C-alpha cells in the first residue's frame, strides 16, 4: 500500500490536472456563461483580479473539448472547432490566456494543469516567435472524436493578422482596437460562431464599450462584475482596503468595471458609501418606513421599477428592491412589480398619459387595470411631480445627487443593475447620456413623489377588501387618495385605513 503522503500528493496532482471539472463559477460568471445560449456576442466587463479571465478560459476549454457539465446552460459545440484567443501582446497572451488554458508557461511539470487536461492535447503545441515559451497553436481532442485547434494572437500584430479563415469561437482578453474587433466578428459570420470579451475598461468610453452599452442589438449581451461579486477577495474590510489601494482616477474601473469618465460622471459619491446590506437594516426601521414604487414605463426602452422605503424621522430613503424587464408587456410587468409590494402606492412619469392608439386608454390606466380578472397596480391618480407641480429632469437628478452626497439615499447591495447604472451615468457636452438609465429614472420618479409613500407590508398581498382593513375615523390620512379606488378623497379628513389582512412571506433577501 502506498504511503499516505504519496496518496495525498497524487490526489493533489490529479486535482491540478482536472481543473475543467473542479472549477466552480461565481454567480456573475454563471450569468455570463448562461447568456451564451442566446447571445453570440458577449462582454464580461469587470474590475481587476475578479475572475473575468477564468470565465473566458473555462468556456473556451469547454468548447475545445466538448466536455460540458451535465447542467451546462450555455452554448454547445457538438463537433471540433476552430478558435482564436487574442490579447494585448504576445507576452500578455502567454502569461494570462495560455497559462490559464495550458498551465504556467516555461514549467514542464505545469503543462496540462490549466483548464485543458494534459491528456486531451492531441500534439505538442507549436511555438510562437514573439516571446519565449509562447504558443502559436494547440490541438485539443474533442469528445466527438475529432480535434479542435486554437491559435493565439495579439493586438500588436495589427488588423491584417486577423484576416483569413472562418472560425467558430473567439475569446478577446482585454480591450482591442475596434478595427480588429470588426475583423474578428467577420471571421465568425460564415460559421455562425460566437465571441466573448473579458476586460477592465481602463481606456474609458471607447467604441467597443459603447457598442455594448449603447447599441442594443439581438444576440449582444453585457455582464458587469464588481469587487462585491468575487468572494475570494475576502470580507468587506478586505474589499474596502483593496478599493482604497487603487489610484483615485482608476478606482471605479479597477473595482467596479466602470469605464473611466473623469469629470463627465454624474454621481461622484463613492459606491461603498451608498450601498447597504438589507439584512443589517433593523426590522422596525423597514417595517415603519413609508413605501413607494417608482416606474419607468419603457415605451422605447426597458421597463423598470424600484421600491423605496422612506424613514421620515431621519429623512433617509433606502432602495430595497427593483425590477428591470426588456421586450415584455404589462402582463409580465404588473405581477413582477406586485411581488415587491402590491399595496405600495406607485408613482409614474408624465408619459403615462400617452394613450393607446386602439382603445384610447392612458398607459397609466392600463397598469391600474391590466385586464379583467388580473390585479393591477396601486397607481397614483396623477403623474409624479415635486410639491410645486414641476417635474424637471435636471431637478430630479439634482435631488438624487444631493441625497447620495449627504447619505440620505442608499441602495441595497444586491441591486447590481441599479448600481451599474449609478456608476455609468455621465454627461457629454453638458448633457446627460440617457442610455441604460431605466432604473435610475424609476428611482428619480419615486424620490420626486415620496410624499405619497405609505406604511404598507412588502410582498404580493391579496386584493384589498373591506374585511382586511381597520378604519380609523378619528385620524387623518397621510395621503390624499383612496387606496381602493386610486381617486382623491372628497373631504379634508378622510378615514385612516390600516391593513390587517394576511401578511405576505418575508422576502428572501431580508
Structural write-up:
With 510 residues, the chain is of the alpha/beta class. It has two domains: 243 residues, P-loop containing nucleotide triphosphate hydrolases (Rossmann fold, 3-Layer(aba) Sandwich); 190 residues, Nucleotidyltransferase, domain 5 (2-Layer Sandwich). The chain contains 16 helices and 18 strands. The strands form four sheets. Strands 3-4-5-2-6-7-1-8 form an eight-stranded mixed β-sheet, with helices on both faces. A hairpin with a 4-residue loop joins strand 11 and strand 12. Helix 4 packs across helix 5 and helix 14 packs across helix 16. The chain is elongated.
Q: Which key terms come to mind for this protein?
A:
disordered C terminus; six-stranded mixed beta sheet; 18 strands; 2 domains; alpha/beta; 16 helices; 510 residues; Nucleotidyltransferase, domain 5; single chain; 29% helix; eight-stranded mixed beta sheet; Rossmann fold
* Fourth CATH level, the homologous superfamily of the largest domain: P-loop containing nucleotide triphosphate hydrolases
Head-to-tail CA distance between termini = 53 Å
Globally, the shape reads elongated
CATH topology of the largest domain: Rossmann fold
* Second CATH tier, the architecture of the largest domain: 3-Layer(aba) Sandwich
SS field, number of helical segments: 16
Quote the beta fraction: 15-25%
The Rg value, from CA coordinates, equals 27 Å
Average pLDDT over all residues: 85
How many strands, what sense, and barrel or not for the largest sheet? Answer: 8 strands, mixed
